[in-house]
Amino acid sequence: MAYRILPAIGRRTLIKGGAALGALQVASPYIISARGEVPIKLGFIDPITGVLSALAASEVEGAKLAVANINASGGVLGRQLELLVEDSANDVGTGVQKARKLIDRDKVDGIFADVNSAIAYAIAGVTSEKGVFHIVPGGHTDPITGKDCKWNVFRICNTTTMDSAAISATLVKKFGKRWFFITPDYAYGQTLQEGFVKQLTAMGGTYEGDKLPINTVDFSATLIKAKAYKPDVLLNNMGGLAQINCMKQFTQFGMQKDMALGGALFELESITSVPPEAQTGWWTMEWWWNQPGVPHVAEFVAGIKKATNKPASARHWFGYVGVHSFKLAAEAAKSLEGIKMARALEGLVLPPEVALQPGKVFFRTGDHQLMPSIFTGEAHPPKGDPANVFTIAEAIAGETAGGTVAENGCKMTYPA
Questions:
Q1: Over the stretch 193-223, which tens digit does the pLDDT of each residue have?
Q2: For the chain, which domains are there?
Q3: pTM for this one?
């Protein structure tokens, strides 16, 4: 079932748009306004159910806020946006099936997919075949904008190389060179651990670890193995509910007294779901809500809060930036044709009200990877605000951490 988002009419500010969003329930179908306009349809595929559902929900909420505000400001090319949300159920086959349904039956003008890197990768094959403009909000595995890059695919979140390179030296400096990995055994985890191992071995470090199914519930055997190895730091690379369960069991075993925690992503949705003793370690954040003095950030945070009663996370930002990037591409191209939109988005610098961070944030021409800042810092129990669980230590430029297009293996080709 596709969930349709009714265009919001007559509100001009982001905060008011957020209020309008609160009235947009996930239901199907909504009736398009009686003015007779034909909406621009956007397909959003994410694992609404399963271990990554909390992350997916935030991405969809961010996209909804963008749709509400864009529609309130006149839409795209004079037309309203309609968001059709499909559940990939954290399954590659299901995700591909939903992509084909959105393209062939619903005739969407763009696809956004997926939190799960393996699903995002598979759907990219479908959208490339069909010539449909595709934005990956939150699937991190490197080949999507690396060796298997495609002319029609752009990505918002970092590559795993970017995240691992941004934090590795800090982990070695603060904790030491003996690491233990707990890694999900699919596309995201595989390239993330490869990135970490490359960084660690270059600094003379050693490691051990386990690769486990993405939906692992019981981590006891792996945690016993980790305790026996006596690492300086344990890198919990699992995501969503699996990472939360692992962290809870880590503290139940009292292992926080024996080793540090750290790694790439420990996202807001996850930090706020674990015991205080597990709210620790040094990690990367791909966007952070507490940026005093940065233009428009407070407005976005307030809009998400008003619409969802949740703190704004990087996943909200991914969905929000994804929809706004579609708008920017279409308006720069003056077209909804995939090739024209892709050409228009190459090299485009996000405006401050979309970038929501300092510095230049842009889609790199050679591989279509967004180049934002990467925030490294320390997780901790709440300080005042319940969402104040991370303190930024440094902002690292995406290009500094991500390597060159040539190093990442992308050789972009367009249809003749």
A1: 999 999 999 999 999 999 999 999 999 999 9
A2: 3-158+292-371 (3.40.50.2300), 161-285+374-402 (3.40.50.2300)
A3: 0.91
